[in-house]
């Protein structure tokens, strides 16, 4: 009874989470638009190409060897910005990570930068769009939302492992679901390890790479696809067990 009385004295606004303010959304949209606009206006994408990486590899390697800590921080920060704003160039950055820091340490730095940037994009999509999507299509998406929430980790692992699904698209679409942030971060951090390692390892042979297609060979893509399907085994098991029960 005491607890009920205490709760009754709490304003209704305090007991329910307030929706994101319009001004907050506008500020965030403006920041994202400025970042993306600056990237394309100043043609920064020219630095995130295979040709640019190969042309500047000696300078980059010399800087990384002389300033290892600073180079690692700058690399992770750049990766966060690129993935957080859904800009092109993450593959080139992964190659650069392997070339500059080695396959294993480069994969670790890529994982930190990519997971952090993907989480920021996920949170931005959730903050900006999820309420609108649920109000507009809530009745139609209820079953999908529930199914995704119950098997979020397996679904996300599959989406991360199979290269058919663009990285930035998975970030934004996931933000519109009810998956928890912790599950999203864990599935993203684990799911991108194989692909990150493949490209970071390829970065060690940067001089011999003439096209990104040489890295993503059919055998590599098939291996990723099989790993992605393997991640769906728990979901299939649940369905089979439920039918038997």
UniProtKB/TrEMBL annotation:
Residue span of region Disordered: 1-21
Keywords: Membrane, Transmembrane, Transmembrane helix
Transmembrane segments: 26-48, 108-128, 148-169, 181-200, 220-237
tRNA processing listed as a keyword: no
Superkingdom of origin: Bacteria
Domain VTT per the UniProt entry, residue ranges: 88-204
Listed name of the protein: TVP38/TMEM64 family protein
Provenance organism: Nitrospira tepida
């Amino acid at each position: 009874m005491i607890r009920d009385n205490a709760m009754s004295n709490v304003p209704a606004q305090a007991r329910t989470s307030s929706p994101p303010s319009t001004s907050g959304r506008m500020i965030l949209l403006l920041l994202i638009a400025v970042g993306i606009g600056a990237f394309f206006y100043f043609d920064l994408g020219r630095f995130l190409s295979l040709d640019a990486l190969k042309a500047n590899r000696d300078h980059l390697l010399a800087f990384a060897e002389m300033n290892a800590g600073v180079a690692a921080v700058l690399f992770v920060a750049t990766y966060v910005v690129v993935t957080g704003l859904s800009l092109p160039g993450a593959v080139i950055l992964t190659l650069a990570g392997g070339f500059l820091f080695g396959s294993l340490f480069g994969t670790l730095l890529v994982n930190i930068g990519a997971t952090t940037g993907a989480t920021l994009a996920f949170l931005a999509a959730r903050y900006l769009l999820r309420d609108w999507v649920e109000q507009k299509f809530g009745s139609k998406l209820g079953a999908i939302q529930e199914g995704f929430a119950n098997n979020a980790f397996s679904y996300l692992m599959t989406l991360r492992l199979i290269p058919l699904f663009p990285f930035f698209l998975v970030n934004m679409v996931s933000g519109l679901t009810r998956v928890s942030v912790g599950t999203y971060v864990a599935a993203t951090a684990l799911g991108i390890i194989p692909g990150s390692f493949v490209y970071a390892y390829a970065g060690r042979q940067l001089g011999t790479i003439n096209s990104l297609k040489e890295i993503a060979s059919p055998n590599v893509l098939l291996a990723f696809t099989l790993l992605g399907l393997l991640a769906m085994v728990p979901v299939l098991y649940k369905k089979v067990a439920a039918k038997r029960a």
